[in-house]
Amino acid sequence: MAFLAVPDPELAAVAGRIAGRVPAATAVVHLSGSQPLGALQPATAAGHPVGSFHPFQSFPVERAPAAFRGALIGIDSADPALLTRLERLALDIGGRPRRVPDRERALYHVAAVLASNLLVGLISTSATVLEAAGWSRADAVDALLPLLFGVVENIGAEGLEGALIGPIRRGDPETVRRHLAELEAAGMEDPARVYRILGRATLELALAAGLDPAKGAEILLALTGSPAATGGEPR
Length: 235
Description:
Oligomer: single chain
Strand order of the largest sheet: 1-2-3-4-5
Shape: elongated
Number of domains: 2
Radius of gyration: 23 Å
Number of helices: 10
């Protein structure tokens, strides 16, 4: 197999170059999370089996092979033999293979970005709030990391609903209002906007976890200014 670990816009061009240099029986596999199998069309046209193999994991730098252990590996191929080989490879490196066909790939990748790239952005926003309170950036990140690790551990042990704590889960609209007032008084409009948007998602989870609907309505009012708000960007 020839694995293409290149930026998405270069996949087709590299696939075309590979197709002219390796035997036709060689499978060409991309590692992209977002691109369909069609991104390898030049290889397909040359008679190569094509597939995808995407670790649902974060690799900003080189990491030890143990990073694959337990990670989902998104695989796909129209060639049954290649699909079996990709599944076996995922298992061999300690991963959990799951077929992710083209029709699922865009939302699959969005989910990965939300849970990884944008999570880093969220921690950066949290650190910025602590900086506004007088903390150094380094102290803020040092304080937030153990909290983040604890939350992830709790999700693994208790599930999403069981791991949820905080003022929204408790049905405490006054604390929510105070948080937003403090952010807005400090001129931190972006963190306030993030709080409102993620607060809406958290409220849905809290209601599923058993929060009293009347308290939920109060929380919604605190977050949006409208008890009937159901969509769009919170005010």
